[in-house]
Design a protein that fits this description.
globular, five-stranded parallel beta sheet, alpha/beta, Rossmann fold, single chain
Length: about 120
């Protein structure tokens, strides 16, 4: 089974993503921010994809991506940023440089979410 970590300070976003992906056969774990995500990465479950909001308290998506890429087991794990339409080009470029595999704009259609996950983790 493919395991996905969803990192967002919005419980409703985590729930929405979980509902969509679990219907497709994925196992989804939620984390409330970057600090919580890093703790979950150390708990033993191997995640195949990480979806992270770019704007979160305690540790944003760019900082989280940098920290994840330092962990040998996750060096090549795809990280997808959740962005809003108002996200700056510079912020997206920072994410790319940090190691993000791509972006998904909020609000997103469920079929787009599934397509992105299948593209980065066939």
């Amino acid at each position: 089974m493919r395991n996905i970590l969803v990192v967002d300070n919005s419980d409703s976003i985590i729930e929405t993503i979980s509902n969509v992906l679990e219907k497709e056969g994925y196992s989804v774990t939620g984390a409330s921010d970057g600090v919580d995500a890093l703790q979950k990465l150390q708990m033993g479950t191997r995640f195949n994809v990480i979806i992270a909001d770019e704007n979160m308290p305690n540790m944003d998506g760019v900082s989280l991506t940098r920290e994840i890429k330092k962990i040998a087991a996750y060096e090549f794990t795809p990280i997808i940023f959740l962005c809003t339409m108002s996200s700056s080009w510079r912020k997206k470029e920072e994410g790319k440089i940090a190691g993000a595999a791509g972006w998904l704009m909020k609000p997103f259609a469920p079929e787009n979410l599934v397509a992105v996950i299948r593209k980065v983790s066939p």
